[in-house]
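In the previous chapter we treated chains in isolation. Here, by contrast, the input contains two separate entities that must be folded as one system, with a combined length of 488 residues.
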Amino acid sequence: MELTPDSTVVFEVWGIGINATILNTWIIMAVLTGASALITRNLRPDVPPNRWRTTLEVIVNGITGQIAEITERRDPRILYFAGTLFLFIVTANLLTVVPGFDTPTSSLSTTAALALSVLFAVPLFGIGSRGFGGYLKTYLEPSVFMLPFNIISEFSRGISLAIRLYGNVMSGAVIAAILLGVAPFFFPVVMDMLGLLTGVIQAYIFAILATVYISSATAVPPAKPPRAPKDQA
Amino acid sequence: MSVDWITVAAQIVNFLLLIWLLKRFLYRPILDGIEAREAEIAARMGEAAAIRASAEARESDCKARVAELSSSRAALLAAARRDAEAERDALLAETRDRLAREQAEREARRAEEAARFTAGLHRTGAEALVALTRKALADLADETLERRIVLHAAAQLNAMADDLQEAAGPARAAVALTRDPLPEELQQRLRSDLAAVLEGVTLRFETDPALSPGLNLRLGGAQVGWTVDSYLNGLEAVLERHAERPLSKAISDAA
């Protein structure tokens, strides 16, 4: 039983093997981009929105609202990053119900790539918001002795993100495969349905955690109150 | 559980590419569309607010005009009421004057009618009295009224000769006035009787259709009459006394 689609090479291009993880990622990208382009191709303010456009607006507005609740500000760059994380993961997790489709999020390479993206995005957002020095100072807070712990915390975030998503999605697929072998009827359907719910929740958790990390890195520290003049007496 | 780092790198590239694609085809169009619609809604809300403000201004203006019209209407009504009362008083005064004038005219006409009626009654009564007297004298005594009057006057002349002479003074021309010409016989009889009582007095006879039946003898400033006027006055008094109400009503109806 294959635990990861990375080992399944579908075809080769110039000697480079394209595995199922990459191919299915392209399919998900094509679905998301194609649907978005199709719905938003004739988008004018004087044309009343149809149900598809309204659906996209609800999704985008929902993501924006969630981000705004966490960051308490509206930054479209966080929307692009965290929103894409959520849409990609949720689409990949929902496509587990398609027979023969190995979802890319069941690959540790994909979840590691997403976690690395978050791991690099957090300092980039922090540097963009606080400046290079300001961001590095966050590793010395509350004291310089916390520097190694902060570095370990930063990397453990990425690892936990990757392992959590991979573990949940892969375990769901593995449990469904095992149940399919033990009891081919009814139970796999129930587990797939549970897997859909878990997949949506995992996508939400991944995107929310990424947003929280970015928000904590970009949060502007409160200005220190001016020192009171010393009493001459 | 292994990590294929080539796949990791490819997935990172794929993810970054997906970010750009979704930004290009999803986020920006949707966010721009939402912003454009919000801007359009805000513009419409602004227009609606401006229209509402304009409507409220017009409403307040209309209310002010209505209040102004109400106050001016009250003033106009008060003025009109005063004018109407003055006009009514003037009309009442004019009506009272006209009624009083008409009342006076009616009273005057009634008095005139009463006088005319009385005169007519007087004349008719006199004629009836004279006619009845003539008829009674002719039927019962084979006499005429003029003859009896002249004989009565001749008989009275002896008794009032001194008074006549004194009242007449130096005048020596007497005039006998009757309504109708006297017969020649009666003229001679009266002339001879007067000459017997008043020597040197000449008598001539004249007629006046306005006179009552009878005889008026005038000598200088003195005048003696034997006419039916006094009898007619008595007849009129009797008629008015016994038939006062019908007579008044007749006069009123005639007026």
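The mean pLDDT of chain B is 84. The CA atoms of residues 32 and 122 of chain B lie 126 Å apart. Compare these points with the single-chain example from earlier in the chapter.
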